[in-house]
Structure formats: structure tokens, C-alpha cells
Design brief:
Elements lengths: L37 H5 L9 H4 L30 H4 L2 H19 L7 H12 L1 H13 L5 H10 L7 H7 L1 H20 L1 H11 L7 H23 L5
Helix pairs in contact: 4-5, 4-9, 6-9, 7-9, 8-9, 9-10, 10-11
GO molecular function, one term: ribonuclease III activity
Organism: Aegilops tauschii subsp. strangulata
Keywords: Endonuclease, Hydrolase, Nuclease
Length: 240
């Protein structure tokens, strides 16, 4: 005897089964609002230039602050070579070249916490290190009368740098580019001569370090106030 078997096929295995039609996305452009011209509807508004607060904005609050982090002291840059008179050994372009690297390291440390995607991290750093932002920060220092006369002299010295970055100079303008170069020159100069003063200036600009920024900021603020009060007292004439 031959046994008969019945085989049932699933609906998706049956060639004659009905298929479900998936609607295709519409390619039609959205219509402008009533009373709005098509050119106005499609042209995005130009964003305003970033402010100082925008450049240093973080996506969330810092974590708990400590005086040290992973066993390292708060002075975190590699020690500079002992150079008593940098201006007698180096030209302004060499100090600006060094200062550019140090400035970007401060920017990268500032945005390292809280964690960001690499694209967002790079975007925020690039927004701070471009010469237009450096010019904005330098104007902040000058407006707050933070710099000493010696530091202002370094700025004047650094403005006369001759650079081959013609594309950047055309984009930002010669005046903005020269002022940004003068700030990098001052950063390189302070790194070689007075690192604590460099930390004070970078804190004044808004750079922080994430894990240990609060204690460093408090110490730098009190140190700066003591230095200011001491210099004011030394300038006052002695009573007879």
C-alpha cells in the first residue's frame, strides 16, 4: 500500500500567495507656508557668530572634582626647557609654533569630558583653535585688563610674524590672523618662562580640566588675587 501525505506550504513559500505592497517614500518637496515665498522656505538662516560661552559650552556637568587625577599632580604639561631669555634665542614664529601646540592641548583636554563622539569632539576643538576664536579670547583678556605690560609687549612682538598660511589669512583677515598669532606667541613664551602664569591665563580664558578643574580653578583664582594685591601694595609709596 502506498501512503498519501499532505504538505502545507506557508504563505510566504507559496508562489501564488498575495504580497503586501510597501508604500514608497514620497519625493515631493514640502510646500511653503501660506504667505511664504519658496526662496525663503528653502534658504536656511545664517547662524550668528559664536560667543565666548558658546565656544566653551559642555554637554553636561563635570564629575566630582579632585586635586589629583590618576595619581598625577595638577601641573600636567611636560616640563619646559630652562630658557631664561627666550627672545634672545628664538624668533616670534618659533614661540607661536610652540604655543599653537600647547593651546590646542588645552582645548582637547577641556572637551575631553564628558565623552563625545569623535566627530563632535573634533568639531568643538576646531571651533576653539581657529584664529577667529583666538582673536575673540585675546580681546577678552585685553578687555579685562588681565595682562601685564611685559605680556602686552610679547603680543606686539608676535603680531609681526610672517606666515605662509595665505588661505587662512584670506579667510579671517590679516588683522585677525596677526592677533591670533600674537596670542600663540604669548602662550609659548609663558610656557618657557612662567608656567603658573600660563595656567592662570588659560583659566581666565575659560579652559578647565574636567576631573580636577574645580580645585585648580579655586587655587588659581586665589593665587591671582594674592599676586594682584601684592603688586598693588608694592606700587603704593611708602608712608614716612
Amino acid at each position: 500500500r502506498h501512503r498519501q501525505f499532505r504538505v502545507r506550504a506557508a504563505w510566504d513559500m507559496n508562489p501564488g500567495a498575495a504580497t503586501v505592497a510597501v508604500p514608497k517614500p514620497s519625493k515631493a518637496k514640502p510646500k511653503p507656508a501660506l504667505g511664504q515665498s519658496p526662496a525663503t522656505a528653502t534658504t536656511p538662516a545664517r547662524a550668528p557668530p559664536p560667543t565666548h560661552a558658546d565656544l566653551f559650552a559642555r554637554s553636561s556637568e563635570d564629575q566630582a572634582k579632585k586635586s589629583t587625577y590618576m595619581g598625577f599632580e595638577k601641573w600636567w604639561l611636560p616640563p619646559a626647557p630652562e630658557v631664561k631669555k627666550p627672545r634672545s634665542l628664538y624668533n616670534a614664529a618659533s614661540l607661536a609654533y610652540l604655543g599653537d601646540c600647547i593651546y590646542e592641548l588645552y582645548a582637547r583636554r577641556h572637551f575631553f569630558f564628558p565623552p563625545l563622539s569623535i566627530n563632535e569632539y573634533n568639531k568643538r576643538v576646531m571651533d576653539v583653535v581657529k584664529c577667529e576664536s583666538q582673536d575673540l579670547l585675546l580681546n577678552k583678556l585685553l578687555g579685562e585688563d588681565f595682562l601685564t605690560e611685559e605680556e602686552r609687549d610679547i603680543l606686539r612682538w608676535g603680531r609681526n610674524i610672517v606666515s605662509s598660511k595665505t588661505r587662512t589669512r584670506k579667510r579671517a583677515g590679516i588683522a585677525v590672523y596677526n592677533r591670533a598669532s600674537s596670542l600663540e606667541t604669548l602662550i609659548g613664551y609663558l610656557y618657557l618662562t612662567n608656567f603658573k602664569r600660563l595656567e592662570q591665563m588659560m583659566f581666565q580664558l575659560g579652559f578647565t580640566s574636567g576631573a580636577s578643574s574645580q580645585n585648580i580653578a579655586d587655587e588659581l583664582r586665589s593665587s591671582f588675587q594674592k599676586t594682584t594685591s601684592t603688586s598693588v601694595q608694592s606700587q603704593q609709596p611708602a608712608k614716612r
